[in-house]
Design brief:
The complex is a heterodimer.
Chain A (H helix, E strand, L loop, with lengths): L4 E3 L2 E4 L5 E6 L6 E7 L6 E7 L2 E5 L7 E4 L6 E5 L8 E8 L9 E2 L3 E5 L1
Parallel strand pairs in A: 2-11
Antiparallel strand pairs in A: 1-3, 3-8, 4-5, 4-9, 5-6, 7-8, 9-10, 9-11
Chain B lengths: L3 E4 L2 E5 L4 E7 L5 E7 L6 E6 L5 E4 L2 E5 L5 E6 L8 E8 L6 E2 L3 E6 L1
Parallel strand pairs in B: 2-11
Antiparallel strand pairs in B: 1-3, 3-8, 4-5, 4-9, 6-7, 7-8, 9-10, 9-11
Classes of the chains: A mainly beta, B mainly beta.
Chain lengths: 115, 110
Amino acid sequence: EPEVTQTPSHQVTQMGQEVILRCVPISNHLYFYWYRQILGQKVEFLVSFYNNEISEKSEIFDDQFSVERPDGSNFTLKIRSTKLEDSAMYFCASSVRQGSYNEQFFGPGTRLTVL
Amino acid sequence: GQQVMQIPQYQHVQEGEDFTTYCNSSTTLSNIQWYKQRPGGHPVFLIQLVKSGEVKKQKRLTFQFGEAKKNSSLHITATQTTDVGTYFCAGKAGANNLFFGTGTRLTVIP
């Protein structure tokens, strides 16, 4: 069964460093998303991406964040200068059509630890 | 801003007991989805409700969407240890994304 994959599974970084989290969405999906989940809390929407551009972003997704689809398969989230409060689990998701009316398939997540 | 609250935050039940989690939105929702997240896992889609008053069943799980499309519930009959996890509702009001609820963490005691 097709699934969303994410690498790395765990990333440890120093405060102020840049990190890139990688995702490979399901191949025939058109909509891609990043969410984050601080330990023990709810899942928070960061950004949605369609047709090679951001379709929507939340207040959390400030200038420190960027997304890119550098080729036909990868979807990346970059955090330019990490802060302690960026420590969280980051989930990538994808859907066939407009996400809010369709099942979103989540990847296993990348646990980001900022020291 | 939009808020989606769930109660209870935590629920401990004996195996075989029923369980219900309630989801309440501050705004009217176009639709609502439910996800389950096992401990250490990622959210997994369970179901989507679109129509006012809609009720859907999946084996021991019953999902309901309120008449005003501002609330929803998930009821599990005769819980099993495999039901352990956090159940999230997720709604969309007008934007093209999902707004997750605060979640209900279910523990099932064998």
